[in-house]
Design brief:
alpha/beta, six-stranded mixed beta sheet, 26% helix, globular
Amino acid sequence: MARVLVVGAGLTGSVCAALLRGSALGRIAVWDKARGAGGRMSTSRSARDAACTADLGAQYITLETEGAEPRRSFYEELLSHGILKPLTAPIEGMVVKEGSCNYVAPQGMSSVVKYYLKQSAGADVFYEQHVTCISLRDGKWEVSGKMGPPEQFDVVVLTMPVPQILQLQGDIVNIINESQKQQLESASYSSRYALGLFYEAGTQIDVPWAAQYITDNPCIRFISIDNKKRNIESPEIGPSVVVHTTVTFGSEHLDSDPAEVQQLILNHLERIVPSLPKPASIKCQKWRYSQVTKAVPNCLGQMILHTQPLLICGGDGFTFSNFSGCIDSAMSLAEAVKSHL
């Protein structure tokens, strides 16, 4: 039985693990360097109240009817389990494409990823496993992380952002050929910061919208009253606010001191929403690889780096930066792994 490692517990990695369930495989392991599932669909909790949550990455999921098959079944499954619900809250400045539908995750975006990890039926999921090195050893892949001893696998699937694939050490450096390296290097991402503001239960945030796109501020692009956007307002649980910066601000402050960045964003936020109360706690998240601005060219959702043993990479960096892009890549990865086995 083949032993498969999926690196990355974001949407692509979790869907890929779920799609590989039941194929002629041994155990599937999923490793992620973060402390929990989600990747760029992660949901953060208030330091004071775990029930008060905020989506610091993806805000909602859009299904465009054009070219929606075969991924429509993924949306329908999530809707039938109540993991996604239609977005009904008012969002100011949102451009709605004709024929498209928007959905929110009432339990937070990470609930989508957790659903697929559960569907992978017995995948061994390990967090705080930061893969640093991949080498060939006796016809298998030896994978080393920052912590713990190296482990061996028959198949390795990489779903992290493309620049992080190019940072890996070991034999992989020479396995990626020159033309693949050029393709991978041509992928690009935008960067931004997200701020989560968590409030005590009973705090009132008096604004007429659930979220709004800001067009005239150099720092802030999007503000959401997150529990209102997800339609889960409750007197027992404090509200949360999510702020996304502009891409320009993100790239200008990419390596700045996080405390300074946080204060800059809060200063701008106060000007835009002066009535906002003082939060009980704040989380500042830097998304170095926020959204794909240019995907790896000439790839249909994945790239095979080595055939025997199989080393393959995918993710939205090989398609396009949204839910459907991750689903497309996961389907393409799972198909390649299955046909290989």
